[in-house]
Write a structure and sequence with these properties.
By secondary structure, the chain is of the alpha/beta class. The chain contains twelve helices and 17 strands. The strands form four sheets. A seven-stranded mixed beta sheet has the order 4-12-11-10-7-5-6, with helices on both faces. A four-stranded mixed beta sheet has the order 1-2-3-15. It starts with 15 loop residues before the first strand and ends with a helix.
């Protein structure tokens, strides 16, 4: 049967009937270890009982009332996000792209209400991915995503990854701030160093710029800290969150200091579904787990163990794995073979991963994994590497 969906995804011909923890099962009973997590969305894995209960309970109450009325679930979630971060205020959206859009608008509006509307440009970085809206593809600057959609939205000046001199050179009287992902997800799991982030924070302070972080993929505990920027000991002005915040339920959030959000007054921005009671209830349930004492320490510990296993695989298969990148439970394997071939070989071993730029395969397991899952994943990846190595030798012999 021909699908009625837009053919914008190259979907694998696999359908999952159920999931539990880090496992997915097809109707026929095939079992997959999910180290994709819906692209870093399923922070607590599949069918987590606390999330299921939160959604079930919320479904017994009004599903939607709009932001024309108070939504206690959204207010409670916003307060918890503020308490867990640098922020004073939160705007809820439905996706990462919308959260980044809000962040961009917030930064521009800040300068406008300060009497400098000409300051609307944001410095961004090569390899960035900020979403699929017209503004966020312009911010990302990837020609693959820009092609065919007309002139890119103006206001973004892209510089090479972690090139501080280029950032300084790109500054103009129109500069409003710097926008970056502390860990580039789609761009190949490249991690900005703490030293670079600290220099960018100091530069923003010195030049009256806003530091805007896209933590849609790397936030909400993914790197072992609630926000990835905490590793560098810096506080941003604005942060976009999504993905792991909903644990599988669509939600996005733009967090900001009161000063940075000073222009976002009544009517400045809006969202029909943002802060929906169902989404906010599930987001609150996610925070119950992620902010529980010891949980982020567990993520860090599992991350160290996974890194050790991946480094071992790199040493064993140097013609297959060129580099191990990442932080916490957000890893990328830069491969010597086509990353699509590597991901397919892993999938044949019943392990799910995600492709990224720079010929990288992402490993984004649920944050609730334990040592047994890491050893299982390592075995499956070792088998995939061995198969790819044999194939390469056979082709070389031929």
């Amino acid at each position: 049967m021909t699908s009625a969906l837009f053919p914008t995804y190259a979907r694998a011909d696999i359908q999952f009937a159920r999931g539990t923890g880090p496992w997915l099962f097809t109707e026929s009973g095939d079992q997959y270890l999910d180290f994709a997590s819906g692209v870093a969305v399923l922070s607590l894995g599949h069918d987590h009982p606390h999330l299921v209960k939160a959604l079930t309970d919320a479904a017994q109450k009004p599903w939607h009332v709009s932001n024309l009325f108070r939504i206690p679930q959204a207010e409670a979630l916003a307060q918890r996000l503020v308490a867990a971060s640098f922020a004073d205020l939160v705007f809820f959206a439905n996706s990462g792209a919308e959260a980044v859009e809000c962040a961009i608008k917030t930064a521009r509006k800040y300068h406008a209400v300060n009497g400098a509307p000409e300051r609307f440009r944001l410095i961004t970085f090569e390899g960035a991915f900020h979403g699929r809206t017209l503004a966020t593809i312009a911010a990302g600057g990837n020609h693959k995503y820009l092609d065919g959609f007309g002139p890119p939205l103006d206001g973004f000046d892209q510089v090479p990854f972690e090139d501080f001199n280029a950032v300084e050179a790109a500054l103009t009287p129109q500069s409003a701030g710097v926008l970056l992902e502390p860990v580039q997800g789609e761009g190949g799991l490249r991690v900005f160093s703490s030293e670079f982030l600290q220099k960018i924070r100091a530069l923003c302070d010195a030049r009256g710029l806003l530091l805007v972080l896209d933590e849609v993929q790397c936030g909400v505990g993914r790197t072992g800290r609630f926000l990835a920027c905490e590793h560098a000991g810096i506080k941003p002005d604005i942060v976009a969150l999504a993905k792991g915040l909903g644990g599988g339920f669509p939600i996005g959030a733009c967090l900001a200091t009161k000063e940075a959000a000073k222009g976002m007054t009544a009517g400045a921005h809006g969202s029909t579904f943002g802060g929906n009671p169902l989404a906010a209830a599930v987001g609150g349930a996610v925070l119950d787990i992620v902010l529980d004492p010891g949980f982020l320490a567990h993520v860090s510990q599992m991350g160290r163990q996974l890194r050790q296993q991946l480094m071992g695989l790199k040493a064993q298969f140097p013609t297959i794995i060129a580099e191990v990148r990442g932080e916490g439970l957000m890893f990328g394997l830069k491969t010597c073979v086509a990353n699509s071939d590597f991901a397919l070989a892993a999938r044949e071993e019943k392990l799910l991963s995600v492709l990224a730029g720079d010929n990288v395969v992402r490993l984004l397991p649920p944050l609730i994994i334990d040592e047994s899952h890491i050893l299982d994943a390592s075995m499956r990846l070792r088998n995939a590497c061995a198969r790819l190595s044999r194939t390469a030798k056979e082709l070389g012999a031929a």
